[in-house]
Amino acid sequence: MSEHQHTALRLAADGVPALPLRKGKVPFGNCSACARNACGGRPNMKTPGPCTCPHPCHAWAAATTDPDVINSPTWQRAWREAAAVAYHPGGAGLTVVDLDNADAIAWAREALPPTQTVPTTRGEHWLYLGAMSSANAVRPGVDIKSTMAYARWLGPGTGTITPLPEVVRALAVSKPAPARSAPQAVTVRAPSGSGECRHRTPTFLERGIAMAEQRITGASEAVHTTVYRTFLAVLSTHGRCGCLTDAHVTRLFTAAQAKGETARHCTDAWTNARTRLGL
């Protein structure tokens, strides 16, 4: 067993999701089944959720606390090539303030509450108890790594970890987006299928629509593709039994238009998704 694999198992036992890093401190590339999002998964994992692929795929979402996964034959090959171990801070209920240089460290000592610190190659990681959204370049030389991000494991550090303060949360607050035109009215209708309803409870459908809205809202690139694939996923799951309503469709179109999509593109994406599924 390699030293990196042993470290990952130790982290997993402490409830810290771990993953291997290859040379250059980057995750292993997706396997052939997941390359170019062929698996239908989450490219760069822009939406929450663990990776279900048995390979160490999809960057931070490969992080796991399951020793059977860490010891699996598929991961064994990765450990033989691994150059370091990383972890998913948000999955462990942690936030890392990554300070990349001396100036950033000096700022943190003035502006942030003391907490557990870990020396890095060029600066320090300051660890706080609590998860939040990750964000890069919140200040010169300062990144926030928590949910949907990974940080290199460099040891337990020194000092007592303290609760995540509001001053750190405030660093990741985005600037207000430019005003967009109001979403146009939706003209398509929900499919009126007659297939078997698999929803079991209304909560299942509501959760599915909410997750679809979140996926569209969270897209930071390839918005057109994300909208189409989200529509396709919703229709595949909810489009045949007749439970999907016009109100649900309106919610999805509104989320897409808030990301800059036109009403025409939403209609085309919806129609194409229905055609592909034969609805």
Please give the structural blueprint.
Blueprint: H1 3-13, E1 18-22, E2 26-27, H2 67-70, H3 73-81, E3 84-87, E4 94-99, H4 102-111, E5 116-119, E6 124-129, E7 135-139, E8 142-145, E9 151-152, E10 162-163, H5 166-171, H6 202-217, H7 223-238, H8 246-258, H9 263-277
Helix pairs in contact: 6-7, 6-8, 7-9
Based on the structure, what is the oligomeric state of the protein chains?
single chain
* Number of separate helices: 9
Cα Rg: 22 Å
Structural class: alpha+beta
Question: pLDDT below 50 for ≥5 consecutive residues: which ranges?
Answer: 42-48, 175-181
How many beta-strand elements?
Answer: 10
Fraction of helical residues: 25-40%
Strand content of the residues, in percent?
A: 5-15%
Mean pLDDT: 83
* N-to-C order of helices and strands: HEEHHEEHEEEEEEHHHHH
What kind of sheet is the major sheet? 6 strands, mixed
Separation, N- and C-terminal Cα atoms: 52 Å
> What best-fitting shape do the alpha-carbon axes yield?
globular
Question: What features would you describe in this structure?
Answer:
With 279 residues, the chain is of the alpha+beta class. Helices cover 36% and strands 14% of the residues. Strands 4, 5, 6, 7, 8 and 10 form a six-stranded mixed sheet that branches. It has a four-stranded antiparallel sheet with strand order 2-1-3-9.
